[in-house]
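Why does this matter for the project? Reviewers at the last site visit asked to see concrete outputs rather than summary tables. In response, this paragraph embeds two records directly. Each consists of the residue sequence and, immediately after it, the corresponding structure tokens. Nothing has been edited or filtered.
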Amino acid sequence: MPDAAYQDDSDPDLPLDQDMDDDSADMVADMACPECGAAVIADTPKCPMCGEWIRPVPARRGNWRKWLFVAAVLLMLLATLRFTF
């Protein structure tokens, strides 16, 4: 016969029914794992599906080489037009 102490529902150490619910419906995936493509939450350090570490992608600081090239072409065009006319 089970012990009466185990059947007491007021034990604070036992999980509540709402704690036993499936929390996956509450979690919204913010990004995909770069290795396997599984949906993961943004601040997850490791993918729960493949186990690969998720490295944050550094923010782009700007494409300075592109702008340097555009500026050089414009300066050459300006110099060509200035000496032509």
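We now turn to the second protein, recorded in exactly the same manner.
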Amino acid sequence: MPRYHFHVSLEGTLLRDPEGRELPDADAAWEHARMAAVDLMQTDFGQPVNWAWSHFEVTDETGQIVLEFPFTEAMEMSTLPQRRRVN
């Protein structure tokens, strides 16, 4: 199974995912990015995050970009519940 890395771009800073995740295909990677974006947007980081400027950059094992998933797309697809606080 291919391994996908879900690098997060938060307001211009790229946070790399060194481990990645094995998933069957790019469609599954897209769905994982969507769910992870929703999860992150529900988290209270103690300071505001501009999700409109944030996205996942999903790469394959060779480092090639497979897809970019804007967090705004996840906002459009779901109603977000209350935020949870990170300790």
